[in-house]
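Blinded run. Sample ID left blank on purpose so nobody reads anything into the name before looking at the predicted structure. Input follows.
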Amino acid sequence: MSETRTVVITSNVFPGLEVEQDILTPLNVEIVKRPCQTRKQLIAAGKDAAALIVGNVWIDAEVLSHWPNCLAIVKPAVGVDNIDLEAATAAGVCVANVPDYGTDEVATHAMALLLNAIRYVDAEATAVRGGRWQPKPPYPIQRSAGRTLGIIGFGRIGQSVARKAAGFDWRLLAWDPYLDDDEIRRGNAEPADFDTLLAQSDFVSLHLPLTEETQGMIGASVLAKMKPTSFLVNTARGPIVDSGALLEAVESGQIAGAALDVIDEEPPPPDHPLHRTDRILVTAHVAWYSEQAFRDVRVKAVQEVARVLGGQLPLNLVNPGVKPRFDARGV
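Blinded prediction complete.
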C-alpha cells in the first residue's frame, strides 16, 4: 500500500469532513482540519501536507518554503489574490480555484442590489417597520425602463448579469479589456470604452478580479466621470473601490449612491465610515451563497485535490507555468 498522504483544510467555512472523506479516502489520504488566522499558524498547519484547501491568509515564498511535500493549494473561491502565484510556480505547487460555483448567485445578488437602487426597497421596508406609511416616498424614484446599465468586467458573472438584465428594458453597456467587441456583443451588451460607459450609465456594476491593476481602480477620478444620478454596485472584490473616495462622492452628490456586497475591511467595524450614510447599502459578502453553491464549491475544491494527488493537473489551474516543475516532481 502506498504511503498515506495528508490533506490539510485551513479554511473554517465548511462543517465536518464527510464530503472530503467521500472523495479522498479511496486515495489513501488522511484529512485534517487546521483552521488558520495567521501566517504562523498557516506555516505550521501545512508542514506535512501534500495538498491544502485554504482560506484568506497570505501565502508566499516564505510560507511555501516550510511545505516541502505540498503539491497543490486549492482556494474554494474565485479569487486567489492571497496566493503568490510566481512563488507557487517556482516551488512546483499547483494553485487552483473554483471559478464557476457561484456565478448565478453573484449575478442574482447584483441584480437585487440594482433593483433596490431603483425602487428603494430597503428604505421603504425600514420606514414601514418604523411606523411610517408613505405611498409617495420622500426620495426620487425614476422609471426603470430605458435606463442604462454599465457592466465593468464581462466574464462569467458579468455575462450572467447581462442575461438577467435583458428582460428589464435596459440598455446594456460592457467594458472588458480582455474581450473583443464581438465577444461582448455575443453576450447581449454593447461594447463601450471605459469613460463612455461611466458617462452614460445610470448604474455601474463591477465584476472584476482583484489584481495589481484593479486594486483601487474605482477612485475619485473615476467616480467623477459618473452621472450625479448614478449608482455603483460592487459584488466583486472590496479593494477595487476606494471606499474613502466613494463616501466623498456619495456625500457630496457626485453620485447618487452605492450598493456593496464587498468592502475594503471585512467585517467592518461599527464606526466604519461607510456606515455614515444610508445612501450606501452594504451586505455581508453573501452574494456567493446558496445552499447549492455552498456544496458545489466544497465538492469542486476537493475534486481538484484528488486530481493532483492522482498525478493530474487541476481543471482550474491558475498558474499554468507550473507544469514543467510539477511533472519533474514525479507525483
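Unblinding after everyone has recorded impressions. The chain has a mean pLDDT of 95.
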